[in-house]
Design a protein that fits this description.
Distance between the termini: 81 Å
Structural class: alpha+beta
Oligomer: single chain
Low-confidence stretches: 2-16, 155-185
Largest sheet: 4 strands, antiparallel
Strand order of the largest sheet: 1-2-3-4
Mean pLDDT: 78
Number of strands: 8
Length: about 180
């Protein structure tokens, strides 16, 4: 009788856990990282994480994401690097699907640097700021120094274009409208 009760108890325990499913763990792949700023990929979606220096809590990590529809990652990299060559007079403003990002250039100790300024959910009340980055740090973050940039330079989605309404930082393909969101303050 004791074995039967134990068997019934085990069967009951199994039925309780049958509602829990083990899901496939799809983790982000790190493209590159330097200090508190990193670029990550999940399928054809790219995310830049950074430590928000605009808060009193230095443990606040923020992020912004976009899809690599028209080689947007390469376009963003080129846009940033071009800013090191010829520093813009004002911030370069980019509209992403969920956020507005400003590229703020400044010379620090005579060296050009860039900072991401994020207007979270496109709301100017909620602002996150990354550390200032040198060109060498940007190259590391975008995987230029470790060879991982090849992960985003491949055409995404097997050549199929999405029709979703998302901003692009890449130069437009011939015959398409300009999707660059570069504005002056």
């Amino acid at each position: 009788m004791r074995k039967i009760i134990l068997l019934i108890t085990c069967m009951f325990g199994i039925s309780v856990f049958s509602q829990i499913k083990v899901l496939k763990n799809e983790s982000l792949v790190e493209i590159g990282k330097d200090n508190s700023v990193g670029l990550y990929k999940k399928e054809d979606k790219f995310t830049i994480n950074y430590q928000d220096l605009n808060t009193s809590n230095l443990n606040t990590i923020r992020s912004f994401s976009f899809q690599n529809l028209d080689s947007d990652v390469s376009g963003l990299y080129k846009l940033i690097v071009d800013g090191f060559i010829s520093i813009p007079d004002e911030n370069t403003i980019l509209e992403l699907p969920n956020d507005i990002i400003e590229l703020h250039y400044e010379k620090n100790y005579g060296q050009p640097t860039v900072q991401f300024i994020q207007y979270i959910n496109k709301n100017r009340k909620y602002v996150g700021k990354s550390q200032f980055l040198t060109r060498k740090q940007v190259e590391k973050i975008f995987g230029k120094t470790n060879g991982k940039s090849a992960m985003y330079e491949k055409p995404g989605m097997n050549g199929v274009r999405s029709t979703s309404n998302q901003a692009s930082t890449a130069a437009p393909a011939s015959g398409t409208g300009n999707k660059n969101k570069k504005s002056k303050k």
